[in-house]
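Please check the following.

. . .
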Amino acid sequence: MTASVEHRFETINRLCRSVFAGCFLFLILLSGASAARADTVVLDKGWEYRWGDSPMVEGVPEWTRPEDKGQWRAIDFPSNPPGREGRENVWYRTTLPEGNWRDPVLYIFSIDLIAEVYVDGKRIYHYGEFDAEGKGAFAGWPWHMITLPAHSAGKPIYFRVFSNYLDIGLWGEVKVMERMSLLEQIIGDSIEGLIVGGFSILIALLALVFALMQTGWRTFVAVALYSVATAGMVISKSPANLLLLYKPLFWDYVGAVGYFLMPAAMALLLEQWFNSPVKRLYNWVWKFHLLFTAGALVLCLGGWAELSHIYPVFDAVFALTLVMLFVPTLGLFASASYDQRAIILAYAVLSILLLLDMGVAHGVLPWGQVPVAWGALLFSLSVVVIALRFFARSQRMLQEMNILLEQQVQERTEELKKLSYEDPLTGLKNRRYFDEVMAREVALAARQRRPLSLLICDIDKFKDFNDTYGHTAGDEALRRVACKMRESFRQTDIACRYGGEEFVIIMPDASSEDALKRAEELRRAVSMDSVVIDGQTLEPVTLSAGIASWPENVSEADSLLTSADKALYSAKRSGRDRVVSVQLVE
């Protein structure tokens, strides 16, 4: 590696990190500066529709006049009314809700395809341009923020819609909210896509640098193509891009190019990593989709087709391509290397997410935002890790990239650890969860003067049971005890595995008598239960338990654990298989 190439690489890498970090910080600051949000009202009822287009009387649509007596039909959501039969014009209306908003706006996730909005016979918003025949050209699929006039609450609002697309009407969600609350939502919804998109661009730049310095440049070109396609697809879907540059059609073209290139990049990557009889299939697929992308752009930019009409065709072809690529690739799984298996699994996840996204887009599945960006990121990470392993000769540059990837994984792992409060063996909450919740329950009980009881128990002679029957039997005994706990206690009680064979249960609003009764039910249930391993019924296990209750027999709520532990010790000394309350100890 020459010094000049190293210098260029470091410059590019430093620039990308600086720009990405700056943009991310800007989004966080802007999000934090948003005003306190008022109530948001989702407009999911009270809609009506009417096929056709309204005559204009002195520039005012006749259908928006109070004296209009036309027939309107009820509809659950203003999209795809029944009986379309080739119609391309439709009107929707509903009543704006009452609310105490300072700067209300109407938010619409998307509209197919162009629309005008009227209140009191006045046009308050339009997207796209209607001609004299009530038609218009596709202008993109942005989200819409419509400023509502003063004193419009409780009034009818009308939507004039034209679409020669498969769908006609509003799509996703429609709601009234404060402008600043909407901007905060837009920024929050964009962070995920911007992070994935920025990371994908960084991968593409690094892959291109590697391609200039490695003999196996085809693999890095494929990585770069996939990363660019991913970045275009996810960044174009980030709502905040319209705040930076309000060019909806431009962003739709960016997203379309990324989306259309996705199968070409996936097939090109598979071709590089799988030397098999299906390699010819991969080669044919990526070449076909490159031609498809180029042809679609020529048709749309030349005015011979609209981008909206290309999507349904591409989705059908893409769905078939995903199956064509995955089925033969899955057949190679048994003989594949670990790297290749990782690629197959990541490809399967991404394919499923893409198919779900298609189902939502075409109304086959209910509306919801599918996390395609994270599936694309998973595939990107798999691809990059394998490329780094395969091209280990450039150690310094590979190490820098690996450190970046490890930081991403470590941050995610730390987040998951913070959220992980479940014991994997028993399904109960773990000790970390107990420590946090116990402190909270003690504070609540003291503040609200409510009783609080605590039970601590363990399995008698558990070590002897393990030594006699083995750890598999011991694990099953722990699971059976946990099952009986869930059956014996209330939903409001909090059962945790404290450690080893020891369990602890927090019982808010439970007196000493209530706690003793439930503890006895648990003890009897455990002693009457059986542990079955490989068809063999083993001897039952028993429990010893100690109970402490505040304020009945413990003066300080935060000493419940210590007091209950002393009661448990007393139960052990008294012969085991019994429940002892603090008041009995004292």
